[in-house]
Amino acid sequence: MNFIYFLVNGPSQNEVYGSWYMDEGYVLGLVLSIIIAVLAVVLFYYVWSKFKPVTALHWFITMGVAAVATFCVNFFIAKGRIVNYISFNALDQADPTAIQRVAAGTLDMWMYSLNSLILAVIFYFIFSVILKRWSNSYNIPFGVSRKK
Amino acid sequence: MTTYVFFVGGTGARVLRSLVMLLASGVEIGANNKIVPVIIDYDMQNGDLKEAKDLLNLYNRLHNTAAYTSGESGFFNAAIEMRDYSMANIKGDGDRDTFAKYIMYSFLKNDRELAPTAALINALYDDSPQDSPSTELNLEMSVGFKGNPNIGSVIFNDYFNDRSYGYQDFVSEFGDGSRAFIVGSIFGGTGSSGLPQLVKKFRQEGEAGSGNSTALQHAPVGACVVLPYFNVNKDARSAISSDTFNSKAKAALTYYAAEINSKLNEIYYIGCTGAGQPYANHEGGEAQKNYAHLVEVLSAMSIIEFIRRDDRDIPNKDLTGTPECYEYRVQHGLLNKNGRDELKPVSYLDILGLKNDDEKSIYHRYVRHLNAFAYFVKYCLDFTFSGKDSGMFGQSYYKSLGKYITGGQFGPELKDFEERFVRWTKELGDNSQLRFDPYDFSQELDYLVHRDENKAKAKDIKDTIRLALANGSKEYKSEPDSAGKIFLHIGSQAGIEAADR
Q1: Are B170 and B4 in contact (CB under 8 A)?
Q2: Domain spanning B2-91+146-330 has what CATH number?
Q3: What is the rounded radius of gyration, in angstroms, for the C-alpha atoms of chain A?
């Protein structure tokens, strides 16, 4: 997981709650990225493209929306979960400013959200390639025919 | 079933043009039915005829590309099969360019024994000098009979006698179950002389007892008799005067009632009072290229009605009674203002009846298809051929089919046909005699079809077409040869979906 969340490793090392990422943060971020990417792909290929003619531009827009959504969701979930993690493990005794800093947003949280965004974009692409062939937009973002 | 349709003279050519447009839009003539056109004219340089021939060739190439199987419907679906005898230019050799030379009048006059015949001819035909518009014997025939059926009926016999015109080939091919239909005007020269001769000849054939000729003798035969529907500018130098159209038509109708009608199964009479600005007066040649007229569209529809008629419903089968006669009277199109008739645009709803859901209604059989094709044409010209649907962010269907649609032979041909369709509808709308104005191609897609003012405009036509094209293009399986076929098939579906909105 450290490998996947490469942006978080550095900034989280000096934080008292740094172990939260290994305990649940990485898995949670990964799962949320996959869910949001799958939802976006299904919405694009099997809902939107049934009612409106879509192009690669719409595919990129959907990807952008999914990426931003993943960023925001992961950021706010991380914030809530980390505050609970600090309180539950009494980590604020070691660093009394931890909760205040987390509430304002720390660098590791921003990096965590950004890393999840990158994962969501990768999953969006992978699921697009898998799911597009049965949809009306089989050739978006690339491809000519559905199958030979 | 094969229906051999004879298009005689300039009006025949113009009706053929409208027929091709109707069939291109997907109007159905019935499963397994096909049309074999036979175009007969003296004046092969006639502009209307050249346009019809070009259109016919283009139609056939697109029909072959579409390659529909039996039971399928769509644009360019109906089969129009050309034969070697489909174009009959009943023009004699260049030396016999006047009627007098054609019948060797000077020889008759100079021969003592034949002099009485020459005198009889002199009594029947006006022998004014060649520059006189009333001349008949000295009529210069390079561009046709110029509204003289008494000359045309003599020369028309060549069509039956000269094997190079292919009438005998037609008779040999005509089989049991086939039908024949003749379209021609009765106020001009070629049509009014050809129509009765063809009918009489059809019914004479077979008296000798030969197989195929018997089939023709007893076959269902229909005719569309086009009555005067336009007038032309007065020109003292021209042999054509619309002042004589009605009297010629009356004389012809009287003759038909006595000699022709009982030999037919169905007759369609279509005409219209020329009310607006007269056409320019051209005796023939390339300059004779009149704007398309609603009457020609209705005449083309009569052909389709005849072909679609079930065998059981064919009237006057034993040819002992009277044929079924259909008359069409346009009641709209004129607005009486202060005692004067003024033209007003005529819409589909005025002419063809309100839209309804009955599958047999005029709307479903004709208007829906025309609307579908108009939407498809407009979309193709505005987006497909203009390149707006191409590129990285282009439409889904274009990614698959684009380079095959716009490139090669298919794309330019389809575009050419579509531009001719636009021109045809524009001519109908701009016709100075009667404005039939169903489409405005200068407007956005949603405003293309002129609708009842009380009804809301169509919405999202562009998206409807794009969605249908995207859905349909899934059929493409990386076989370039099939791209044109698939585009026409899915385009038909897209057009119908747009028309149904």
Answers
A1: yes
A2: 3.40.50.1440
A3: 18
